[in-house]
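Below is a filled-in request sheet from our internal design queue. Each sheet records the structural input a requester submitted and the sequence that came back. We keep these sheets so that new team members can see what a complete request looks like end to end.

REQUESTER: design group, bay 2
PRIORITY: normal
MODE: inverse folding
CHAIN LENGTH: 315
BACKBONE (tokenized):
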């Protein structure tokens, strides 16, 4: 019986996997002999599982596969649909937690990691099923999970409870903080003595500002007497303004680090690294303030998606 069901599901879904996108009105034509009612029910179930997503265009529903390999995703869905995937039915050594302990977290798929965070699931929807649904829905966009509320996640899978939602959010935040902590450590570099070295350093060290930040952020990198990085400090968040970036706030961490020089860094979320007049004004003001206290402003680097630009070189 299960093989007949498998064959029937495959007869509906395999032809559809040949299209990256298809319209609701053409599903039966693509599939062929199967009844339109069964085709519609099957597609709706696949959508609820997160394997397909819907897009409304020109007053018509279009479907898109959420996985770059829809055939594999379909086979996995069919297996779960026919056999289920309750953790208790999985050999102990193959359960996500046991594999994590045996092989390490890096060996697990996104679905496995999410299943561990969901932990127990609910009656009728296991943690493993929930993990697969979330992984399919947020394929290659796991960062979007951080901004997704509990009701939205529960629409994807009822396995996400208040407790498991808190665990998922806590894990994401801890990962963000760990990444931030790693970025605070100086990159491996001997010293920064030129514009090229400064832009290369910032391109690596502050790459996240070019890709992730939605607001301007102003940072400094403190340097020792040999111009080796000591530490980076975030000073302000928001539009760069000479009246807001006060020398006191900029040089306080530099004095605390016993820095001989500083490298100024800020991003342009627009992607265009061209320094503005305000950028130049901030640079000039801080350079003069640094001279008064004996701390050299080595350069001011603008980080953007296109490239990094030195304000010293732009002047």
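RETURNED SEQUENCE:
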């Amino acid at each position: 019986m299960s093989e007949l069901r498998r064959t029937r599901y495959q007869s509906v879904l395999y032809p559809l996997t040949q299209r990256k996108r298809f319209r609701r009105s053409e599903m039966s034509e693509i599939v062929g002999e199967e009844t339109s009612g069964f085709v519609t029910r099957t597609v709706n179930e696949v959508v609820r599982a997160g394997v397909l997503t819907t897009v409304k265009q020109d007053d018509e529903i279009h479907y898109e596969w959420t996985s770059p390999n829809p055939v594999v995703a379909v086979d996995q869905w069919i297996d779960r649909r026919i056999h289920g995937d309750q953790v208790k039915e999985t050999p102990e050594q193959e359960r996500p937690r046991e594999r994590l302990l045996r092989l390490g977290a890096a060996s697990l798929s996104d679905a496995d990691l999410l299943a561990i965070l969901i932990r127990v699931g609910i009656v009728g929807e296991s943690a493993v099923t929930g993990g697969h649904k979330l992984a399919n829905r947020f394929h290659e966009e796991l960062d979007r999970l951080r901004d997704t509320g509990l009701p939205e996640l529960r629409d994807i899978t009822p396995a996400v409870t208040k407790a498991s939602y808190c665990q998922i959010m806590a894990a994401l935040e801890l990962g963000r903080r760990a990444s931030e902590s790693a970025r605070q450590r100086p990159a491996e570099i001997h010293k920064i003595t030129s514009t090229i070295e400064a832009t290369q350093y910032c391109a690596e060290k502050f790459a996240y500002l070019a890709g992730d930040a939605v607001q301007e952020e102003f940072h400094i990198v403190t340097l020792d007497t040999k111009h080796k990085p000591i530490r980076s400090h975030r000073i302000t968040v928001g539009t760069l303004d000479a009246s807001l970036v006060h020398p006191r706030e900029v040089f306080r961490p530099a004095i605390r680090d016993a820095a001989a020089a500083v490298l100024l860094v800020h991003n342009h979320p627009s992607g265009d690294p061209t320094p503005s007049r305000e950028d130049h004004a901030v640079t000039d003001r801080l350079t003069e303030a640094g001279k008064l206290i004996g701390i050299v402003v080595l350069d001011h680097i603008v980080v953007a998606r296109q490239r990094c630009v030195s304000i010293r070189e732009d002047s």
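SHEET NOTES:
- The first helix runs from residue 2 to 17.
- Residues 84-181 form one domain.
FILED BY: M.R.
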